[in-house]
Design brief:
This protein has 268 residues and is an alpha+beta fold. It folds into two domains: 5-49, Uridine Diphospho-n-acetylenolpyruvylglucosamine Reductase, domain 2 (2-Layer Sandwich), CATH 3.30.43; 58-264, 2-Layer Sandwich (Uridine Diphospho-n-acetylenolpyruvylglucosamine Reductase, domain 3), CATH 3.30.465. The protein is 33% helix and 22% strand. It has eleven helices and eleven strands. The termini are far apart.
Amino acid sequence: MEEFTYTRPATADDATGAHSAAEDAMYMAGGQTLIPVLKQGLAMPTDVVDLNRVGDLAGIQVTGDAVTIGAMTRHAVVAASAEVKGAIPALTVLAGGIGDAQVRNRGTMGGSLANNDPSADYPSAVLGLGATVTTNQREIPADEFFDGMFATNLEDGELIKSVTYPIPEKAGYAKFPNPASRYALVGVFVAKTAGGVRVAVTGAGQDGVFRPAEVEAALSADFSAAALDGVTVPADDLMTDMHAAADYRAHLIVVMAKRAVNQANGQG
């Protein structure tokens, strides 16, 4: 591990100030990705800005039509939140299935989204619900936030402050997890909203999280698992790795979508 300057600010303004003053800084949220990366020498920042004392970046607020969750809110807090469960139960299901207890008690929503691992769970909720990511500079709609594997449209030094999820009519999340890491081989988030049906897939795309048009079209006509009988998702742009081939992931997308729809409909 290379040497770096370590800063632990108490406010979001102090955090962005420390980042902008540094030569090559990185934010650290829960550290579930950054710490291993630093240990392996895959990142060599001059400064690490630790966000764990920034209290104004954590918390949950539920209004009549939306759930806003601070970027530094731990997965375990979301999973256990009665407020979130009452508004968007699928979010608590998703958060409760991330990693293991240690990961859920350290990992944060903002850290997961900024890293945009192609097998992470939260990107599917953000894209599936059409959420808005609020930073220290602007508000970014979900369809404009993600920019490929491990990439987002965040500018250098831009800090995620919160995510606002519109409350859908119904939603569900199902994933086929890697038995060791609990990352999604395939995870599917489905949501029926006033603006239509949205479906987002994680764990499968070569460019990270994406919306499968075939699944959305079928569920827009009939929001039921049976509507997906006979639907196929092309494997051309899906990942093949040591865990699963692209055609197997294509099959799993439909299977997980059916389970997510059943969950959304209170049938599973």
